[in-house]
Amino acid sequence: MLTSSVKHVAGPLVRSMMVDATSRSIFRDYEACVKCDACVSACEEQGFNVYDWCENGNVPTTCGDVPLEQSRCVGCGQCTTVCPVASIVESDHLTDVEALLVMKDELKAQGKILVASVAPTVRVGISEPFGEDVGTNLEHQIATGLRNLGFDYVFDTCFTADLTIMEEGTELLGRLTDPDAVLPMFTSCCPGWVNSVEKLYPELIPNLSSCMSPQGMMGSMVKTAFAQKIGVAPEDIIHVSLMPCTAKKDEMARPDLLGDVNYVLTVREAARLFQNAGVDLPNLEPGLYDTPLGESTGAGVIFGASGGVMEAGLRTAYELLV
């Protein structure tokens, strides 16, 4: 929630020691703003125009000066990548996850299970903070590193990317053969895109696939089938999802996912998780993800590249058709 005073005087809005924590994805500290205009430009380039200069030109704020959650913001996080002073950052889940890992022995004594799942983009995105060449694949080092930190199981979200592809491919074929179905069909795997449709283009909601995203499916699998397999109650599993996008933090709180994913770490947070613990990620011995939620095909892997979802979906629809 907005913390501290916001008051109207004669004319412009006056802010005093203001932070905006209304968004589940992005945290804004207006006091730290250096008025560089980077967030305004970045958001304009994305076509959302969430930020603008308030009347007195003090700091860039949301259009209409509304809380971020009530604005046009879809949680894409581009503003967090360009802000030079951490005035705009991803909502912090790292602090809570680090606290859990400090208590891992106590949690284990209570019967709690720590589970991590890793999105395909993370395996290459996390290399840069460790000084590696752009695109270096640290997939297997991540598996080792997360186990060393205290996670009991480490899964690959590519597994549920494959499930998403199978579901969306099947749904597409069903729509193509149903004269009453809504076309074209758009993927629902990206929460930033789903937020865009819901906030800005609600007339396109029927065009969205009915499928959960890979993160959503992984959360469901972890708290149902996997929980049953290892004989624990879903509430005894603490599921941390490593994702490339701040909008995934918003997605985990949607009603259909609520409780399936407990924390979401962005790539930057995941890198700091290892760095704060003194883990030299690139030089770890390669490890494997746990089965069966660690197995996948190339279709799931290319989810992490632009155009990969479309390619994987069409490939799957073709295979199902012929």
TrEMBL record:
Pfam families: Fe_hyd_lg_C, Fer4_7. Residues 24-53, 64-93 form the 4Fe-4S ferredoxin-type domain. Belongs to the NARF family. This is 4Fe-4S ferredoxin-type domain-containing protein.
